[in-house]
Design goal:
The protein is α+β, with helices and mostly antiparallel strands. The protein has one domain. The protein is built from three helices and six strands, in the order E-H-E-E-E-E-E-H-H. It has a six-stranded mixed beta sheet. A hairpin with a 6-residue loop joins strand 4 and strand 5.
């Protein structure tokens, strides 16, 4: 995983939160991926090639979300990862959530 250089201290703090959340979820962060700040939105994200979603924290909070993005258009869906770490969903459920969105897109 590559961490973008020249991040401000707040963005680096959020990268640390994202890596911690990924670890709490049981995600393997050793593969290809990137942690960076979106210059347009200010969101800080952790994208890992092995997962069908991206973890992110928006500009005004420290709440971690999982985001699925359409490969066909600009549609996106997000889910609060707190429901995963509180035991309501597993990492497998979160992955299945993103896979179902992709399957529905392909079948449409």
């Amino acid at each position: 995983m590559n961490i973008t250089q020249n991040l401000c201290s707040n963005a680096l703090r959020k990268v640390a939160l994202l890596i911690t959340k990924a670890s709490d979820l049981g995600m393997d962060i050793s593969g290809y991926g990137e942690a960076a700040e979106n210059q347009n939105s200010g969101n800080v994200y952790l994208w890992l090639e092995d997962y069908p979603f991206t973890l992110y924290i928006d500009l005004g909070s420290d709440k971690v979300y999982a985001n699925w993005s359409s490969s066909l258009d600009e549609r996106e869906e997000s889910i609060d990862t707190a429901i995963v770490t509180k035991g309501f969903m597993s990492l497998a459920d979160l992955t299945q959530w993103a896979d179902k969105l992709t399957d529905a897109e392909v079948q449409a």
